[in-house]
Amino acid sequence: MEYESVLKEIGGFGRVQKAIFLALSFTSFKAVLDLELMVLTLHESKFRCAQQNSSDYVAQNYSEHCRISRLVGDDTNFTLINETCTKFDYQHGDVISKSMVEEYNLVCDRKHYATGMMSVFFLGCALGMLFGTLGDKIGRKKILIVCGVTDLITTILPAYMPTAETQIFARFLKGFPAAVYYQGLLIMEEMTEEKHRAVLGNLYWLFWCVGYMFSGVVVYIFKEWDKIQLFSTVFCLNYIVIFIVVPESPRWLVLKGRVEEAVDVLKRIAKWNGIKWEHKVSKVKALDVEEEPTGNILDLVTYPEMRMKSIVIFFNLAMFAMCYFGLSTDTTFITTNIVLNVLLNGAVEIPSSFIGWLGSDRYGRKYTTVIITVLSGFCLIAVPIVPTGGVYNIVKAVVAMVGKCLLTTGYCIADVWAAEIFPTSVRNNGLFLATTLAMLSNIVAPVINTLSDVATFLPGLIFGITSIVSALSLLLLPETKGLPLPETVPSSEGLVRGRERQWAIETFSRERAQSLLDDDDMEAVNSQRTIKQKPMEETTIA
């Protein structure tokens, strides 16, 4: 008996799965809120040297000044001496009345502290993702609990840091709970019937888009960075719901040989879905699943096909992340108004979830991702080339929004696609190692944005070319649309480009394969007569 059949019997996407989906999706709302609030409160407003209040100094307008001229001598015999500014006056705008830049004087020779805060945040995210790989050993639910508690502590901590150095350390710690929203995606993949995964995997990030836009609203209302930081702790209340509602993944429990616990979880899900399932418990207990040795990172490189697929996934998620977060940390990517910029950036990502769902569900993961990511690359290259002024500003904004929407769509599908390619025994290891490398690539994203000081077109050129190259490499991966999740690394070796349908026939029961393939596919596979007949295991976790 197959695991997918059990999910269908208890309600493949019943009301309990919907409640779990909402609770877990909210973690992505909180994650992007933390990132964008940091980016917005690090926005640099106009400033000038505070020394100008003395009559000895030459007056300055509000603009970027790191040095000031001082008059030395009397009215008839004087000289001008350039001095380095040590104190600054800031021009408060309508959006933020007190930013972290003002709090810690992160301008001039201290400007690198602001870039450093964002970079170490992503470093913390990378280490947090490594922690997420323990989910294959200790369970998905335990990772959620640890990340939830850590997120609450590290959300409060930055508001009370006295210096820029301690703030950098706090931002580093703030990155650790990043594993929580990817862990949530994994649990949803493993608790939901196969036919719903594409839509859920893409709609999972809808809350991310809402959180993106909401960060602008929070900044506009509270205006001071420390109050903004403390307000964001309110959204940690969602973890209480997660701890109560979200169970351990029954698929993981079965693979660990803990069938009795899996049965209890499945019974609760069936009960909450209003399905009388007790008489079918014996079927789950009859699953003859050997206790799998927990997968490890070496499994990803030991087998040739798994090694190739892993390398392509690692490279692509890293490039997606670098480009995406490079644009997300640029407060003037679409418009110079930072609140309007973040609202538009978040708004253009809302269609990406639906485009990703419809495209991947109808045309498959592979070609949908490749085409839209290549198009996004050309848009990103074009944005800095479009002239400014008049109607060109509208053209520039439209091209930027289209590019960001397409890039986000590709990123959404790639996450779901990767989770479907990695077998269950190493899914946590594979996906979290990929996201760890992605977070490490994010460290350079804020640095790439600073290259605009050298030439305005450089960041867009780098992000655009990277998107195109990474998209083309995706052609090496197999299509996973309509296929069950592979269970182990050896069984996934046959899942390669061009042989997806044959793999379904060879690996799963014929009845199951017929439910996946249409008549033409079945006839084509049968006519090839290349499928080796081998005894099927009586129980397979699909």
From TrEMBL:
Report the locations given in the UniProt record: Membrane
Which GO MF terms does the UniProt record name? Answer: transmembrane transporter activity
- UniProt-listed PROSITE patterns: MFS
Which stretches are annotated as coiled coil?
Answer: none
Q: Which residues cross the membrane?
A: 113-131, 143-162, 168-187, 199-222, 228-246, 310-327, 333-355, 367-386, 398-418, 430-448, 454-477
Region: Disordered, residue numbers: 522-542
Pfam families for this protein: Sugar_tr
Q: How does it sit in the membrane?
A: Multi-pass membrane protein
**Main subcellular location:** membrane
Q: Which UniProt keywords apply?
A: Membrane, Transmembrane, Transmembrane helix
Gene Ontology cellular-component annotations: membrane
List each copy of the Major facilitator superfamily (MFS) profile domain by range: 20-482
Q: Which domain of life is it from?
A: Eukaryota
Cross-referenced InterPro entries: MFS_dom (IPR020846), MFS_sugar_transport-like (IPR005828), MFS_trans_sf (IPR036259)
Q: What is this protein called?
A: Major facilitator superfamily (MFS) profile domain-containing protein
